[in-house]
Amino acid sequence: MTAQKKGAGGKQPTINDVAALAGVSKKTVSRVINRSEFLTEKTRKAVEQAIETLGFVPNPQARALAFRRNFLIALLHDNPNAQTVLNFQQGVLDAIKDSDLALLVRPVDRGSDGMLGDVRTFLEKQRPIGALLLPPISENDDLAALCEDLGVRYVRIGSAPLDDAKHCVSSNDREVVAEAVRALIALGHRRIGFVRGPVGFRSAAEREKGFMEALAEAGLDLPASFNAPGNYRYTAGIEAGEALLSLPEPPTAIFCSNDEMAAGVMSVAHAKRIDVPGALSIIGFDDSPTATHIWPALSTVRWPIREMGVRAAKTLVPDFLPLATKVDERDNGVLNSTFIQRQSVAPPQS
Amino acid sequence: MTAQKKGAGGKQPTINDVAALAGVSKKTVSRVINRSEFLTEKTRKAVEQAIETLGFVPNPQARALAFRRNFLIALLHDNPNAQTVLNFQQGVLDAIKDSDLALLVRPVDRGSDGMLGDVRTFLEKQRPIGALLLPPISENDDLAALCEDLGVRYVRIGSAPLDDAKHCVSSNDREVVAEAVRALIALGHRRIGFVRGPVGFRSAAEREKGFMEALAEAGLDLPASFNAPGNYRYTAGIEAGEALLSLPEPPTAIFCSNDEMAAGVMSVAHAKRIDVPGALSIIGFDDSPTATHIWPALSTVRWPIREMGVRAAKTLVPDFLPLATKVDERDNGVLNSTFIQRQSVAPPQS
DNA sequence: GTCATTTTGGTAACCGGTGTCAATATTGCC
DNA sequence: GGCAATATTGACACCGGTTACCAAAATGAC
After folding, report:
1. 3-state DSSP assignment of residue A180
2. Collapsing DSSP states into helix, strand and coil, what is residue B6?
3. Residues within 7 Å (Cβ) of strand C
4. Within a 10 A sphere around the Cβ of B248, how many other Cβ atoms?
5. pLDDT confidence of residue A35
6. What is the C-alpha separation between B142 and B54, in angstroms, rounded?
7. Reduced to 3 states, what is the DSSP secondary structure of residue A186?
8. Distance between CA atoms of A236 and B137, rounded to whole angstroms?
9. CATH of region A173-303, choose from 3.40.50.2000, 1.10.10.10, 3.20.20.140, 3.40.50.2300
10. Which of A106, A266, B150, B343 is close enough to B296 for a disulfide, judged by CB 3.0 to 4.6 Å?
11. Which chain B residues have a beta carbon less than 8 Å from that of A120?
């Protein structure tokens, strides 16, 4: 029972009450709150005792005003994938759990003209210590510049380093995509299709690079007809599936740049009575809930999104985190994604 | 171009700067900010002009301190469904868009012992104006009592009224489930299975009631073997599917209490080569992304979650919202869910 | 024109913390 | 013991707004 029950009407005790009770000045209490090192053990104990007795909780608004900084960090995201956002968010919360920080969430409308202005207004009004930028908006350099300009720290999350390690946490998507495609090749696949991500997305480019690398290693090439455009949406997967699976000699395996599009391709396969994985292997990317909710379960690449949230928070506000299991200076901020094998992949028929 | 570009180092202008420029006292500026009525048109214009020129943004921390209240509202959620949380969140943000409010997000671990204590600590530390409780934690009366005790307003979101209208926004799930089941019956289905939600969840109970109502109306009953337990997870859907579809006389249609379980049932049908919807119709609930990402697309019930977010915010903090399209006093806080027909439903065979 | 009443603007105190810097222990060293 | 160096603590202004209260100006009644 650490929580002291206060009568509903009873006012919250202030630092002055604590100071009076402990017989010290409010500044000393402030020092205890902020874990100043220049304190006698005896004084500290006395103050802590008084805090405990009164059930004192420092007023964050007052602190924020005095510190000229809010104890808030902002999570800026466009929402391509709700589960990703929430997992990341959970990671951030894991990291700031025992700190004084709280998390502000702010969806951003990537498309809109006023986007930059909106974010500026938001940051000016809330003045968070820092901002975390989730992809795809993390790829927007103007946003990073805006944070810089406003003196708001920032960390960008990406599928490959977007910035120096102080400002970026990323995963090694390219390598893992290559690994996944190598697995297809090892099974005997030679006609492998590709469904691209949206133009201009770094994540899409990385996945494509990984795919191409694996193909090149094996001396295979990608016919234009096997290379379908996409935009990370289910409907794009449907279109790509229609296109690739209507070819006279369709691919025996298709790598899709994300799970939703893979689900679309799989739907087309079902509609065309093409057996998955017997006649067609499919791989996606993200390990979204969809990956395990479709049948057969989708092989995919999981990026360590929650862990990236933890890492991002530690990178953003190391000085506000308790006992901060510090991020190694020499760390480059790259975390490992994993290729996950499920039932959607098998050797090609005969 | 409302945003004024400030040099990076340049300090944020304060109310004093505005007062000086406009040639009035800070009190007058404060009156303008807070839309006081006792002001000459001329004075107000002058102050607004100065604010515009300086790009002044009132410091929310200072206001919060002076007002003795934070301009924050908290969203407390356990995460059964990421998309739901995010959609609701979006609705809340729509509602508070032009206010001074910001949204704090706080996942809650329903299972953990310290849950109540954690939430208490959070609320005491952040002191938000109010809290929004998403299901399933909205069903926890202790949480509501805690808010009451701490003087934090709250609104509970539920599948049926959980509280008086001042504290609750809900949808009419029961009716719409009944409607969906009636649709099955109208198509000719007589052997209809049911996959329940988790025990103790209000939402699960409501969906079950709706299902039973429709059956009763048609003079049908639910054999025990057609009534499968579930917990809203995909794996529960798999188990339920295995059970129901292995019966000598399996149901021709199955209503699942949520989409994930419906996806599980559908996977089993695919594995057993049972044609959906030819030999088996399936209906889910939630209209989650999964519903449209599986094949065939799932008929389901969509609850107006984003709109509920808007409504919840309006109910929680009507006094902080601009021109608040006020919630009608006579409104009971119930919004309408919708039955959505997709490809997973058809008449029973022969 | 004078007095009472209503509007408006100004001053000072305050919200609950923190920074600065000086004042007061405490310790080390000769 | 005396003095310098160092460790602790406190006084006070200040963060950027708000309210309380008062004074000045404007308006209306006689």
Report:
1. helix
2. coil
3. A 11-12, 14-16, 26-27, 29-30, 33-34, 56, 58-59, 62-63, 65-67; B 24-28, 31, 38-40, 43, 62, 65-66, 68
4. 5
5. 79
6. 48
7. helix
8. 37
9. 3.40.50.2300
10. B343
11. 3
A252, A189 contact by CB (below 8 A) = yes
pLDDT range class, residue B6, cuts 50, 70, 90 = very low
Do the Cβ atoms of B83 and B309 come closer than 8 Å?
no
Q: How many residues are present in chain B?
A: 350
- Chain A CA closest to residue B64: A61
Does the domain made of A1-45+54-58 have the CATH classification 1.10.260?
Answer: yes
Is the pLDDT at B3 greater than 70, yes or no? Answer: no
Q: Which fold has domain B67-171+305-323?
A: Rossmann fold (3.40.50)
Give A217→chain B minimum CA distance, Å: 33
pLDDT of residue B329: 57
**Do A260 and B62 lie within an 8 Å CB cutoff?**
no
Q: Give the C-alpha separation, A86 to A82, whole Å.
A: 6
* Alpha-carbon span B51 to A309, nearest angstrom: 38
d(CA A162, CA A143): 13
C-beta atoms surrounding A193 within 10 Å: 27
Q: Inter-chain contact B59–A65, Cβ cutoff 8 Å?
A: yes
- DSSP classification of residue B160: S
Query: B residues 237-276 near A, CB within 8 Å?
Result: 260, 263-264, 266-267, 270-271
Identify the residue whose Cα has the smallest distance to the C1' of C18.
A66
Question: To 5 degrees, how large is the angle CA A188–CA A193–CA A196?
Answer: 140
